[in-house]
Each structure stands twice: as structure tokens, then as C-alpha cells.
């Protein structure tokens, strides 16, 4: 909030002069939360696509989701997305949708099946200036804990290139073998994660705010929180096809 400072003259009977409005740097610093994790919406679509395009085109030459598809899923199922913001800037995100078959098929790339019990994770990506900080594994872990609070979700699935299989295994995913989906000349491994039980709920400063008053907290024995980054991971693990 701009403050106007009145500069008073030392001489009597002189009308005070008013300086031009200014904004305190300290006040501006606290305008936005330092770190926030929340669902994405269609207003975030351009930022999402810019991060995704930079992360994937240089590696595989293909984006998991084009801009219209990003908007499509953020319109139909925004509750299955998660974005990590630093001072209002999107630095990492996940986008998912529901699927109703045991294995992924081509339709899973573009369809959302509201009656499905499987969350298809389309993409995990981290902004290039925030890689090598463990944000990808932390965000994935928080996302999986959030899915435990959704009673209709039974498992999560994704497809990734072979060099990313170890990365997702560290997050608890298991291989289902070769995926039936191919994109151009790319082939993928299909992986799954069982969703069971309920998220551990407790009061602390790391609460994640989601719609309808849902607050998701990390388990007491889980991976590090935002204030405790994971060890550095390979850069390609936080910006490749999933």
C-alpha cells in the first residue's frame, strides 16, 4: 500500500509539501506468500504450457499436453492438478485426469472419465531455474498424499520414458511393463501407484489449501517438507515426459 510522506519545512507558516507516492519494499515483499501449493485453474494455463514446452521440447521434441489440452483438463478436473508457487510465480506443476480402464490407451491422452477410479498423471514439470532443488519429488509426494483424501481414487498411473523409471520408483511407483501408447517414435513404460487409506491430518504450518475446505498435511514419517528439500536429483527427472 502506497504511503504518502509529508515533508514539513523548518520555517514557520510554510505550507507542507507532499512527495510522490512510493511503495515500501518491505510491504511489497509480503504481498504474496513465499511458498504456496494449490490446485491450478485456467488462468494458470499459459504459465503451465511455457514451463512444459521448455522442459520437454529440448528432451523429447514432444509436449505431453498442448495449450488447448492444458485448458481442457484445467476446466474439467482442476482438482486433479497441483501447482507450486513461489511469491506468486508458478515453479512446478502436475496435471492429472480420471481414467476408467486397467491400462492406458490412446484416449487417455485427451479424455477425462468422471466415473473412473484411476488418476492418469499427464505431466510433471519444473521451471528450469528451480531444478536441481528436489521440487519434483516433493511435489509428486504431496500430490499422492492429496489423492488419498479423494474417496473415489484407487490408484495413480503414468507413462514415462525408460530413463525416468528409476526416478518414479523412488516415489513409490511400480512398473506395469511397456505402455500401449506411442507418440511419434517415442515408447514408454507404464507405471502405477496404489492409493489407499487416508492422508494423515494434523495442524502445522505446511498445510495445503484445496477447495471445499480440504486441508492436506504430510504424514509424520514422510519425506521432507517444503522447508526441508530432498537431495539433488538429475535435472532430466524434473522436466521430461510422464
UniProtKB/TrEMBL annotation:
Polar residues composition bias: residue spans: 224-234
Domain of life: Eukaryota
Gene Ontology terms describing biological process: circadian rhythm; melatonin biosynthetic process; response to light stimulus
Region (Disordered): 220-242
Pathway linked to the protein: Aromatic compound metabolism; melatonin biosynthesis; melatonin from serotonin: step 1/2
Domain N-acetyltransferase: 35-206
UniProt KW keywords: Acyltransferase, Biological rhythms, Cytoplasm, Melatonin biosynthesis, Phosphoprotein, Transferase
Annotated EC: 2.3.1.87
Keyword Transport: no
Family named by the database record: Belongs to the acetyltransferase family. AANAT subfamily.
Main location, first listed in the record: cytoplasm
Gene Ontology MF term list: aralkylamine N-acetyltransferase activity
Compartments where located: Cytoplasm
Catalysed reaction, written as an equation: a 2-arylethylamine + acetyl-CoA = an N-acetyl-2-arylethylamine + CoA + H(+)
Regions annotated as coiled coil: none
Gene Ontology cellular-component annotations: cytoplasm
Family matches, as PROSITE patterns: GNAT
Organism expressing this protein natively: Periophthalmus magnuspinnatus
Enzyme class: transferase
Protein's name in the database: Serotonin N-acetyltransferase
Amino acid at each position: 500500500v502506497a504511503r504518502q510522506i509529508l515533508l514539513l519545512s523548518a520555517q514557520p507558516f510554510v505550507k507542507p509539501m507532499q512527495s510522490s507516492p512510493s511503495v515500501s519494499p518491505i510491504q511489497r515483499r509480503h504481498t504474496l506468500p513465499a511458498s504456496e501449493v494449490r490446485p491450478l485453474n485456467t488462468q494458470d494455463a499459459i504459465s503451465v504450457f511455457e514451463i512444459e514446452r521448455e522442459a520437454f521440447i529440448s528432451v523429447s521434441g514432444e509436449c505431453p499436453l498442448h495449450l488447448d489440452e492444458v485448458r481442457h483438463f484445467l476446466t474439467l478436473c482442476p482438482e486433479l492438478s497441483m501447482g507450486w508457487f513461489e511469491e506468486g510465480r508458478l515453479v512446478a506443476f502436475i496435471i492429472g485426469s480420471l481414467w476408467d480402464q486397467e491400462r492406458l490407451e490412446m484416449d487417455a491422452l485427451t479424455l477425462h472419465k468422471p466415473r473412473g477410479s484411476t488418476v492418469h498423471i499427464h505431466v510433471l514439470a519444473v521451471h528450469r531455474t528451480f531444478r536441481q532443488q528436489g521440487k519434483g519429488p516433493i511435489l509428486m509426494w504431496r500430490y499422492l498424499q492429496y489423492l488419498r483424501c479423494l474417496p473415489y481414487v484407487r490408484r495413480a498411473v503414468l507413462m514415462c520414458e525408460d530413463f525416468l523409471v528409476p526416478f518414479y520408483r523412488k516415489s513409490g511407483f511400480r512398473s506395469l511393463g511397456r505402455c500401449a501408447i506411442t507418440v511419434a517414435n517415442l515408447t514408454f513404460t507404464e507405471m502405477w501407484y496404489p492409493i489407499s487409506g487416508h492422508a494423515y491430518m494434523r495442524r502445522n504450518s505446511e498445510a495445503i489449501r484445496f477447495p471445499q475446505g480440504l486441508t492436506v498435511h504430510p504424514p509424520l514419517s514422510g519425506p521432507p517438507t517444503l522447508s526441508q528439500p530432498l537431495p539433488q536429483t538429475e535435472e532430466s527427472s524434473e522436466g521430461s515426459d510422464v
